[in-house]
Amino acid sequence: FPFLKSSLLSNYNKCFLCGPFFCRLEKCGLIVACHKDLSSVLHINQTLKELDLSYNDLGSPGVEDLCKGLKHPKYLSPTCSNQTLVELELKWNRLGDSGVKLLCEGLKCQYSRLQKLVLWACELTADCCGVLSSVLSTRKSLAEVNLNLNELGDSGLRWLCTGLKHPDCKLQKLGCWLVCGAKAGQEHGAQNNWPRGGAGEAIASCGLTDNCGVLSSVLSTSQTLIELSLNLNKLGDSGVKQLCTGLKHPNCKLQKLGLFRCDLTADCCGDLSSALGVNQFLTELDLKWNRQLGDSGVKILCEKLKHPNCRLKKISRESLMLRVIDCSIKNFFKTPNLGCLGHNEKFFTSATASEKSQTDLFQVVDHLKNPDCLIFSSRSQSLLL
């Protein structure tokens, strides 16, 4: 439905009725006037499972009309609570703490079945984290929460961790890419159109610091948390060292850890290496844009990747590079890195290179021919094998 306008929406109602349907009306120029039509579609349609209205000028009145459709008897339990809604994405809306507090009142209803909640860049602060924590400790269906680009800070994190440590919390995935200014984050994201992708260069100052002791206690307590994203937070070596204490705990079930651009240096690699040798579940580690890891840090990590107890299966492609931009084969495919790729049968990565030399090329080919090397893809703009 490219460039669908409100005046034409009613003509497409029949398309909503054609069997199982996932309707995406992203960037279609929809305005408030069309949402009564959409609301009526929600009344009539028996199969629509997903409706994407991102980047349309809905406004509050438009959302109110949609909610009338969602309140139709076919969606409701006898208690007048929607039991079919399992995913709610509200990113890049200025909900603020007051809006999220109202939202949490609905989430705490015993009949709520919501599984995924996305509140990316909604101008939230630590003030709303108490009610969010309460939801985490009571809503057993909630498995994924994304709070990226909100200025929650350390105090907000402490509130959230209280809920995460509750025995009734069943959360599996938590996203906490936190910028220091939600408004700045929203403006940058709107200009560069990256809500669905990675963060931009302007995201440098972050809401979390090296106070990671509470997160470490969550890792050692939670039996369900398998994915934690702390990208773009200035955790530093001291913060990661605290996290590693939790990672080494026998109760830790974490499988995926994001530490993209967290101001890490070689000083934390010993602790990370120790955690990799102990943790039996961690299979994916993102260390991109930590430029100060250096040769010494890379060597420490690669030694542990060769260890038979290491379960790591994927490391993000820039994470072992000494230079992130204009990286060369020489930087990525150094002997220690190639050694770990050859020794560890469980390990794979995606490698990127932009320069070549004959010596480096021969070195790469030799290790790619190793029967134990499981590099899945090696992409290059200038290197042709």
Automatic annotation (TrEMBL):
One of its GO terms (cellular component) is cytoplasm. It is found in: Cytoplasm. Gene3D superfamilies: Ribonuclease Inhibitor. Pfam families: LRR_6. InterPro entries: Leu-rich_rpt, LRR_dom_sf, NLRP_innate_immun_reg. Keywords: Cytoplasm, Repeat. It comes from the Eukaryota. Its main location: cytoplasm. The keyword Repeat applies. PANTHER family: NACHT, LRR AND PYD DOMAINS-CONTAINING PROTEIN 12, NACHT, LRR AND PYD DOMAINS-CONTAINING PROTEIN 3. This is Uncharacterized protein. It comes from Pelusios castaneus (West African mud turtle).
